[in-house]
């Protein structure tokens, strides 16, 4: 079976795995971003599913797949909102860290070290598929997306977050964040793998998935704060839904 896994990316995140849950360590931007994206995902799901986002666990009953779950930061946030979460990652060390951190949480979480191509081949499907900050790290984007698209149930919803392929995104995320400010380890991102929104929309549309919401994410270099913005030239998130009840075709 073809795989979108990049061995160099797996090795990079293996070396960083022990730092996942350190909010002041190399993954601090992800912890800050997680507050923004968790609120966005919660509010959009509640809007489209007719739920109250002010309830303690508004996502109760939903089966959520977190692709590229890393150490479980987003997975735990979704589980705290009531969802049943399956977190998957191709780095064994990440899964070990996620399982250890969730051990005493009492949350409805399941972690597995598996590629999305393998998971899709099992016929598994979910109410919601999260594909956050992953697509810029895969070796075969069309194949990866085709497998991801198979994993949503008829009528299901999903989210993608990544970096746009613009000069300002490269300057900000690579030169600024990695080399000038030192916010991220050098080599975290490669500009050639940044993905324009139109490319993701095309890969979604070919499997009868329609983008229904779009937002950018703003980073304040002075306060290290993050917030939503209409501008999608650097970081952005897309929300999509399945247009038909047909299963998507295999990659």
UniProtKB/TrEMBL annotation:
Keywords: Methyltransferase, S-adenosyl-L-methionine, Transferase, Ubiquinone, Ubiquinone biosynthesis. Transmembrane segments: none annotated. One of its GO terms (biological process) is methylation. GO terms for molecular function: 2-polyprenyl-6-hydroxyphenol methylase activity; 3-demethylubiquinol 3-O-methyltransferase activity; polyprenyldihydroxybenzoate methyltransferase activity. S-adenosyl-L-methionine binds at residues 37, 68, 89, 132. It comes from the Bacteria. The keyword Methyltransferase applies. InterPro entries: SAM-dependent_MTases_sf, UbiG_MeTrfase. Its EC number is 2.1.1.222, 2.1.1.64. The keyword Translocase does not apply. It catalyses: a 3-demethylubiquinol + S-adenosyl-L-methionine = a ubiquinol + S-adenosyl-L-homocysteine + H(+); a 3-(all-trans-polyprenyl)benzene-1,2-diol + S-adenosyl-L-methionine = a 2-methoxy-6-(all-trans-polyprenyl)phenol + S-adenosyl-L-homocysteine + H(+). SUPFAM superfamilies: S-adenosyl-L-methionine-dependent methyltransferases. This is Ubiquinone biosynthesis O-methyltransferase. Pathway: Cofactor biosynthesis; ubiquinone biosynthesis. O-methyltransferase that catalyzes the 2 O-methylation steps in the ubiquinone biosynthetic pathway. NCBIfam families: UbiG (TIGR01983). Belongs to the methyltransferase superfamily. UbiG/COQ3 family. HAMAP family: UbiG. The lineage of its organism: Bacteria, Pseudomonadati, Pseudomonadota, Gammaproteobacteria, Chromatiales.
């Amino acid at each position: 079976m073809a795989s979108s896994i990049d061995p160099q990316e797996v090795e990079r995140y293996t070396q960083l795995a022990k730092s996942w849950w350190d909010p002041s360590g190399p993954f601090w931007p992800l912890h800050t971003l997680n507050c923004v994206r968790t609120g966005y995902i919660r509010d959009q799901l509640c809007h489209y599913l007719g739920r109250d986002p002010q309830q303690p666990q508004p996502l109760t009953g939903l089966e959520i797949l977190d692709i590229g779950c890393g150490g479980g930061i987003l997975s735990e946030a979704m589980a705290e909102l009531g969802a049943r979460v399956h977190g998957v990652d191709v780095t064994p060390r990440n899964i070990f860290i996620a399982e250890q951190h969730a051990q005493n949480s009492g949350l409805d979480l399941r972690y597995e070290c598996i590629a999305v191509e393998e998971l899709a081949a099992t016929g598994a499907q979910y109410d919601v598929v999260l594909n956050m900050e992953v697509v810029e790290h895969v070796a075969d984007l069309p194949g990866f997306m085709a497998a991801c698209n198979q994993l949503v149930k008829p009528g299901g919803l999903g989210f993608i977050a990544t970096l746009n392929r613009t000069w300002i995104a490269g300057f900000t995320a690579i030169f600024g964040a990695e080399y000038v400010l030192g916010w991220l380890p050098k080599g975290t991102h490669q500009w050639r793998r940044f993905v324009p929104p139109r490319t993701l929309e095309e890969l979604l549309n070919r499997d009868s998935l329609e983008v229904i919401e779009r937002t950018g994410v703003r980073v304040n270099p002075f306060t290290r704060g993050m917030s939503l913005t209409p501008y999608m030239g650097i970081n952005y998130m897309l929300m999509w839904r399945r247009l038909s009840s047909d299963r998507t075709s295999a990659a």
